[in-house]
TrEMBL record:
It is found in: Membrane. Residues 166-237 form the TonB C-terminal domain. Residues 81-112 have a biased composition (Low complexity). SUPFAM superfamilies: TolA/TonB C-terminal domain (SSF74653). It comes from Novosphingobium barchaimii LL02. Keywords: Membrane, Transmembrane, Transmembrane helix. This is Biopolymer transporter TonB. One of its GO terms (biological process) is transmembrane transport. Residues 55-135 are annotated as: Disordered. GO terms for cellular component: membrane. Residues 123-135 have a biased composition (Gly residues). Residues 58-68 have a biased composition (Pro residues).
Length: 245
């Protein structure tokens, strides 16, 4: 038993030794910090400078060249075969049209005769209330004989006299003659007065036809027709009387 106790007393005491070392380290550190307060900061800076490594960002790799795509060529178009040569056109003979032959009528020489045109010496026309007239009669032609030479005459011209379709006819037969007309021929003397009347186109109202002749003889006055020599002549003057109301 005495042997066992001896061995236990000789075992080293590591815990106590570590505690002593720790106490000494703390005391030394405290002394250093007390007398040289910046030594620790200098040591830290020295260590940091020793281990400072400048890191630069890696350079970007060179871009890869893009592949060049060659343009596609369109397939060649098929060329058609040449057509057969065209046949030569043969011109057709065309005969020139025949020129039209214009035949001008030959005018016969004018002679003295009875005329019914406004330009003849015995023709004329006049205006009246609700009526108009065209004269015809005997007159000289364009060609004359005698000392004065040829020439044209002057037609008969109405200068006075009116017939009223509303006042000069009976009201009883008004419906019968409205829209109708009568045509009369008046014989005009060389003095310009009416010497006679004749109905050449009757109206539905025979009584109104007679009244028209009577009033024309009584009221109408004329400048007589003249022959190519300027002498007044007797002529026939045609008059149409219309009834509008």
């Amino acid at each position: 038993m005495t042997r066992f106790q001896f061995r236990s007393e000789r075992r080293p005491r590591w815990g106590a030794a570590g505690a002593v070392l720790l106490i000494h380290f703390v005391l030394v550190a405290g002394l250093i910090r007390a007398f040289t307060p910046d030594i620790a900061a200098k040591a830290v800076r020295a260590v940091m400078q020793a281990v400072t490594v400048s890191l630069e960002p890696p350079s970007a790799p060179d871009p890869e060249p893009s592949p060049t795509i060659a343009p596609r060529r369109a397939p060649p178009k098929e060329e058609g075969a040449a057509g057969a040569p065209a046949s030569k056109a043969t011109p057709r003979e065309v005969s020139a049209p025949r020129a039209a032959v214009v035949v001008r009528p030959t005018q016969a020489p004018q002679v003295a005769d009875k005329g019914e045109e406004n330009a003849s010496g015995a023709s004329g026309q006049g205006d009246g209330t609700g009526a108009s007239g065209i004269a015809k009669g005997t007159g000289a032609g364009a060609v004359g004989t005698g000392g004065g030479g040829g020439g044209t005459g002057k037609p008969t011209v109405k200068i006075a006299g009116e017939i009223s379709s509303a006042k000069d006819y009976p009201r009883a037969s008004r419906e019968l003659r409205i829209g109708a007309s009568v045509v009369i021929d008046l014989s005009v003397g060389a003095d310009g007065r009416v010497k006679g009347c004749r109905v050449v186109q009757h109206s539905p109202d025979s009584q109104a036809d007679g009244i028209t002749c009577t009033l024309a003889v009584k009221r109408f006055r004329f400048d007589p027709a003249l022959d190519p020599r300027g002498s007044p002549i007797e002529a026939v003057y045609r008059w149409r009387q219309r009834w509008f109301y």
